Amino acid sequence: HLAASLPLPSERDHLRPRIDLVVFMIDIKSKYSLKNVETSLAYVDASFFLGKVCFLVTGVGRMNACSIEMNAIRKLGEAYCSPVLFCELELEGIRVTTAQRLLRMLRICAGHIPGVSALSFVSLMRSSHDD
Amino acid sequence: QEKADPQKTAFVLRKAWTLYSVTPLHGFRRARLRDYARLLGAFIAAEKQKGLAVEVGVELDIKVALSSHAELRGSELDQAALLVQLSSRSRASSRSSEDKPVWSGWFCSVFGDDLSENVPEHFTCLPLFLSHGAESYTSLVGSWFQKTFDCCFRRLAISPLNLSWMVAMWAGCKLDRAPSAVELVFSVPRLSQPLDISYAIHPEDAKALWDTVQKTPGEITQEEVDVFMDCLYAHFHRHFKIHLSAAKLVKVSTAVASAHCDGIVKILHSEYLPGVLMLLTELAISQIQ
């Protein structure tokens, strides 16, 4: 399900299936997309930040068109304890790989992989910080 | 530190310079400038003979002059700037003193210690190259330097992030003369017809805004630049309901200097020349590293 921003329209709440993973997309060429994500984050329930949220930064193939400071993105990931993935949507190979990665994450968040839960993402992130 | 003599640096002002980053030159010797000029002149003549002609029609002899400019640098640790000038003398002309400048380019380093302190012996660091004139001459001069000194030239692109630093810095500069408007040009992506939006701000308003944002004079932080730009975007959105932050900033113009994302700058004010060159040197160095 794709949405331009949060919150999702409440009229369709009863029709909506359970949400297992929220991927916030930030286009490195658009400062507006970062602002939009920052505003939308406020509408996400705190329980999602236990591994069910990730940030996907797109457009990294063109750093010359960069409008966002990389530090700001890193701080966002740290502040919300959520992984930050980078990709370039214009390259088919990377697009496919990224989609596969997100699907794997989704399967884990939905509980389809026995023995691994969304909480694993959080502990993986914490260990790299302690270094 | 030597104060720049306005006469000597006048050639830099009010011209559109195309920017390149250059890796350190190997085996460059200041004492051999006359030899280099001769060799470069011969190279250009030879290339023209080969049919890689620069100009068709009038037969032109290209004269090359290389000179050092010690006043164009940041500190004693920087190399003096190196100026290359191509001038033409029509063979048909009888007057021997008629030399018309056709192209100029210069290498410089302003506070480029980040690069020069890590470089081995026999290498000369002049990371920023600026050219003005036909692209074909730039290509010829660049090829000769690359072959002779084993260096590499790359066009220097300026990202929207860096352009917003420039406009914030330059809009805040104090100027004695009545300054020209601060202008930002945005290109709107993903439309069938390309659309450019030009946003002009009264220079005093821009400076007043920057003065309320900047906390420590002489220091600029990313947060301050963000606040400055956000104010401009918010103002525009209030009036036109367009989010400029979703568009690509491609050009900024102020009374101090103007810069385009394709790596083209024009410096208008001699007082701020060192500051502008320092910023451009930094960009060139980060492109090299």
Automatic annotation (TrEMBL), chain A:
InterPro entries (alphabetical): Centromere_Cenp-M, P-loop_NTPase
Species assigned in the record: Prunella fulvescens (Brown accentor)
Compartments where located: Chromosome, Centromere; Nucleus
Protein name: Centromere protein M
Keywords linked to the UniProt accession: Centromere, Chromosome, Nucleus
Pfam family, any one: CENP-M
GO cellular component: chromosome, centromeric region; nucleus
Highest rank taxon of the organism: Eukaryota
Family annotation (Gene3D superfamilies): P-loop containing nucleotide triphosphate hydrolases (3.40.50.300)
TrEMBL record, chain B:
Subcellular location: Chromosome, Centromere; Nucleus
Annotated GO CC locations: chromosome, centromeric region; nucleus
Family in the record: Belongs to the CENP-L/IML3 family.
Keyword vocabulary terms for this entry: Centromere, Chromosome, Nucleus
InterPro entries: CENP-L (IPR025204)
Organism: Prunella fulvescens
Name of the protein described by the UniProt record: Centromere protein L
Chief localisation class: nucleus
